[in-house]
Automatic annotation (TrEMBL):
Its cofactor is Ni(2+); Mg(2+). Catalyzes the addition and repair of the essential 3'-terminal CCA sequence in tRNAs without using a nucleic acid template. Adds these three nucleotides in the order of C, C, and A to the tRNA nucleotide-73, using CTP and ATP as substrates and producing inorganic pyrophosphate. tRNA 3'-terminal CCA addition is required both for tRNA processing and repair. Also involved in tRNA surveillance by mediating tandem CCA addition to generate a CCACCA at the 3' terminus of unstable tRNAs. While stable tRNAs receive only 3'-terminal CCA, unstable tRNAs are marked with CCACCA and rapidly degraded. This is Multifunctional CCA protein. Nickel for phosphatase activity. It catalyses: a tRNA with a 3' CCA end + 2 CTP + ATP = a tRNA with a 3' CCACCA end + 3 diphosphate; a tRNA precursor + 2 CTP + ATP = a tRNA with a 3' CCA end + 3 diphosphate. Its EC number is 2.7.7.72, 3.1.3.-, 3.1.4.-. Monomer. Can also form homodimers and oligomers. Comprises two domains: an N-terminal domain containing the nucleotidyltransferase activity and a C-terminal HD domain associated with both phosphodiesterase and phosphatase activities. ATP binds at G8, R11, R91, R148, R151. Mg(2+) binds at D21, D23. The keyword Nucleotide-binding applies. GO terms for biological process: RNA repair; tRNA 3'-terminal CCA addition. It comes from Rhodoferax fermentans. One of its GO terms (molecular function) is cyclic-nucleotide phosphodiesterase activity.
């Protein structure tokens, strides 16, 4: 039985990047031998085990045969006679199909020697040429790989998809392969890609192969939709969206913010033609389309709720520079900022990404963010308890009490505004 390091750890070490998780492949073993040595099986039918001490993943060398479209239709063939080369041949892309002996990587991630690399599909050449190239026709067996290639493009932004791999991905999309993916797998890859340094690259690849139109038609539709050049020098809504996502990444925004950015302008995709390039009421339409996306992909609640408030209120946040005290307080009340201050802060980060994700504005200031945080602090400092108590002593009813609290907040904010 022989053990090799494979996949991301080898790739990242060759790129001089820190190695985080390590995947291992085991050749010449049986499930029983793994169990005998104390390895813990991951699933019932999956030939993957966890090391008893390190808990790293050890997969038996395997070949896969597809039985049905989509992610579920797998059977594994794993046997002691499956070679390392057999196993590497069924992996996704060449830069992920390089193996090495476990002793060739030092603790600091550097290679001792390159002579121990096993690279039958020339992954090192593709690393040097910065190419994502599929290893073999077996790429087809798992349509999630289309999303993986797109996600790797978001991480390694200077890499491109090899023409023959793009053609294969296009063919898979045409054959309906991405239509059978389960929502959890789509969301897992999309959310990871959103968290990479250049999320726009993921969408560029998905668009190029036609997968975006199948997975997120609401987003795909935004290319070719014009916006007012005075607000949006880049004009095209799809181009704007990509700039917003990369700005969110530059601002190191968390996932919920990046997802909110992705969905904030969906409503511009169905603006009536006679209204263009203006987008009156797109905020409401974005919120409605967002609901459909979230149900389809089973987007987690935190992401969904932030995206909803950002879709509805981003234009108001941009305009808030012209707001008086009353309009400011109403904006923050609509955003539920007092009860959800962190979500409100996240919302402002999404709005800043939106404002600066425009041609010529990448380094523009966004004073709305600090100002509205300041307004929130002023509102938080209002002693609502005492006001409510006094109101009730005066015999005021529920709605009237709420009104007096609101008025006290407006007065407090008013006092901080320049004369
Ligand atoms: N659909 C998939 C998933 C994984 N793999 C193979 O399994 C390895 C490990 O998978 P994973 O940990 O998901 O990806 P990494 O390449 O290690 O990337 P990351 O840095 O994101 O962990 C990959 O390198 C690839 O060889 C594959 O061929 N097809
Ligand atoms: Mg990995």
């Amino acid at each position: 039985m022989k053990i090799f390091l494979v996949g991301g750890a080898v790739r990242d070490a060759l790129l001089g990047l820190p190695v985080s998780d390590r995947d291992w492949v085991v050749v010449g073993a049986t499930p029983q031998r793994m169990l005998d040595q104390g390895y813990v099986p991951v699933g019932k039918d999956f030939p993957v085990f966890l090391h008893p001490q390190t808990h790293e993943e050890y997969a038996l060398a395997r070949t896969e045969r597809k039985t049905a479209p989509g992610y579920h239709g797998f059977v594994f063939h794993t046997a002691p006679d499956v070679t390392l080369e057999d196993d590497l041949a069924r992996r996704d892309i060449t830069i992920n199909a390089i193996a090495t002996s476990p002793y060739s990587i030092r603790a600091n991630g550097q290679f001792d020697t390159k002579s121990t690399l096993i690279d039958p599909f020339h992954g090192q050449q593709d690393l040097a040429a910065k190419l994502f190239r599929h290893v073999s026709p077996a790429f087809r067996e798992d349509p999630v790989r289309i999303l993986r290639v797109a996600r790797f493009a978001a991480r390694f932004a200077d890499f491109t998809v090899a023409p023959e791999t793009l053609a294969l991905m296009q063919q898979m999309v045409t054959d309906g392969e991405v239509d059978h993916l389960v929502p959890e797998r789509i969301w897992q890859e999309l959310s990871r890609g959103l968290m990479e340094a250049t999320p726009s690259r993921m969408f560029a690849v998905l668009r190029d192969c036609g997968a975006l139109a199948r997975l997120l038609p609401e987003v795909d539709r935004l290319w070719g939709v014009p916006q007012r050049a005075d607000y949006h020098p880049e004009v095209d809504t799809g181009v704007h969206l990509m700039m917003v996502l990369d700005m969110a990444a530059r601002l190191q925004a968390p996932l919920a913010v990046r997802f909110a950015c992705l969905c904030h302008d969906l409503g511009k995709g169905n603006t009536p033609a006679d209204v263009l390039p203006r987008h009156i009421g797109h905020e409401e339409r974005s919120a409605r389309l967002l609901k459909g996306v979230c149900e389809r992909l089973r987007v987690p609640t935190e992401c969904r709720e932030l995206a909803d408030v950002v879709a509805r209120e981003h234009s108001n946040v941009h305009r808030s520079t012209d707001f008086g005290a009353s309009a400011l307080v109403r904006l923050l009340e609509r955003c539920d900022a007092l009860r959800k201050p962190q979500r409100f802060a996240d919302m402002l980060l999404a709005c800043e990404s939106d404002a600066r994700g425009r041609l010529g504005h990448l380094d523009s200031p966004y004073p709305q963010r600090p100002r509205l945080l300041q307004v929130l602090a002023v509102m938080q400092a209002v002693d609502t308890k005492t006001i409510a108590q006094q109101a009730m002593e005066m015999g005021a009813s529920g709605p009237k009490v709420g009104d007096m609290v609101h008025q006290a907040r407006v007065a407090a904010v008013q006092a901080t505004l320049p004369g």
